[in-house]
Hints:
With about 400 residues, this protein is of the alpha/beta class. Helix content is about 35%, strand content about 20%. It has 2 domains: about 5-95 and about 215-394, Alkaline Phosphatase, subunit A; about 110-215, Alpha-Beta Plaits, CATH 3.30.70.1250. The protein is built from 13 helices and 14 strands. The strands form 2 sheets. The chain has an 8-stranded mixed beta sheet, sandwiched between helices. Strands 3, 4, 5, 6, 7 and 8 form a 6-stranded mixed beta sheet that branches. Strand 4 (about 150) and strand 5 (about 155-165) form a beta hairpin. The protein is globular. The model has no long low-confidence stretch (mean pLDDT about 95).
Amino acid sequence: MGYFNRIxxxxxxxVGIGELPDAALxxxxxxxxxxxxxxxxxxxxxxxxxxxxxxxxSLASVPPVGHPMGFYGKMAERxxxxxxxxxxxxxxxxxxxxxxxxxxxxxxxxxxxxxxxxIGTKVIGNKAASGTEIIEELGxxxxxxxxxxxxxxxxxxxxxxxxxxxxxxxxxxEMCHIAREIMTGEHTVARxxxxxxxxxxxxxxxxxxxxDFSLAPPEDTMLDRMIAKGFEVCAVGKIExxxxxxxxxxxxxxxNNRDGIKATIDCMDxxxxxxxxxxxxxxxxQYGHRNNVAGYAKALKEFDDALPNIMAHVRKQDLLIITxxxxxxxxxxxxxHSREYVPxxxxxxSNENGVSLGIRNTFSxxxxxxxxxxxxxxxxxxxxxxxxxxxxxx
Length: 394
């Protein structure tokens, strides 16, 4: 057993903290998810503030504190991308050297024809679009014809939207498996995403039965190595999808932040040793992509309000890590992810005298920390911060 019996890793999906030096190459110059939301809304985040959030960088509504309870810093992404899969894989020790392919002009006709042949029906859409806008645009035609809506975004995704009364979720998932088989080789995309919705024209609502069908990581992740070493890994939210169900001993596929927080605490109540890996999706899915600054702030406050309860379940020999996987600045014109640093907040009741962890050169510093703590094979990339938080003194 390592220094800590358990590591609880919570990813606040898309909560970036300022543009990376190469942001202009991704069209993201000036992006600052936390900075802009803080400045425009004045949202108070006292609990993350006590852990050192305002000490990472100047935030208008989250001042630095003199004696942070947590260790704090920010991490740079080294992989070629700014999407969920790329970010989570790098957190887990795998760098993506080439970006996943994107389809800003829609998918080639040959791909669409192959997909239509396999599913036995035509499709509509086949363009890059906002998920909420395309179901408003094509939802009635979908209901009338029964044809699924296929679309993409600036990310490497093949998305299929369908009304649950027209194509039930299980049938939609089958279509996604077919798309996953087709989108290989030169047409490989990071994720196939099922986007079920309900309602009537003008009042369509996407449901929480979304599912992501990701590629399997090309190398062992920290999750694979945890399982191989006999440790338990409890996954919450879309973690199981991001890692193609690999390296996970139990999973609760929650669909929103509230349920994700509850499931995380449930895992903390039941798991005696090992790792809990949580993705909280609302920041990105509900607010970032929709340029909803006020909603983004509300989600941040809701997490901050829940943080004391999470911390109350952190045992003396636990390590809580809070971070993100990319940005999605709701205050910019773009509705897509942004190339940003991500915050790093680390807390353990065994050492509440937090100091700066500085600017980390890769998200994989987390994987290296996990590896050192649990005695796993080290990763090619990343530097552990275990000893910087006093892990050698436990």
